Amino acid sequence: MKILAIIGSPRINGNTYKAVHEIEKELEARDSNIKFEYVQLSRIDLKPCRGCFVCIEKGEERCPLKDDRESLELKMKQADAVIFASPVYTYNVSWIMKNFQDRFAYRCHRPDFHGKKAMVVVTTGAVGLKFVSFLLASTMGSMGFITCAEVGVTFAPAHESDEKRQKREQNKLIRQAEVFYNKLIDTKPVKPSLIKLLTFKKQRKAFIQAPKDLVDYKFWKEKGWFEKKTAYYYETKIGLISKMISKIL
Question: What's the whole-model pTM score?
Fold first, then answer.
């Protein structure tokens, strides 16, 4: 099993990397067949998004920025699961992680990672863990990733750190690594929440009414998501009540 870890910190061996490395050790202790690959966003060529909207309207292959975006997307597709990790910078992800999200914004329109499981890791020196974790998980979810584990870890400044606190934070990593592993080995399709089901229906309604030469329309049609019998992005059991509520909404 191959797990890709995308690290959104400008520090190569900083706290965010250390947190993910602890998760790697926990997972490999449970399964020797698990192999990790790290992508440090600060070390690859991923130019700042220009906001030109070309990737949305004409397709990502028409993006004027020629760099490592395409090879990075291929790595995500080839991985069995992906870990997205970022430090908290002023109550948000780092600018490097935000640029990563912006460069893949077209995947929020044309989600191509449905069924692929993910984990979100957020680190901070003080505050912002829950909020930033929510932001990161939401964005990745809109691209299709199933976030099945989230963990926020506080690396307190040296003058505030103590052994008891460090142990508590490490235990959080261990617990969520176990949650992630159990989700990875569970091969049953993940049942979507009502919100995710509603998102699918709202997107389908929007794109089925779009011009037929629009990239989004072509993508959804090729996926077969416009078909009436298609209830979600991938085949899974959906309860009758959820179907009825989402249809009404």
Answer: 0.94
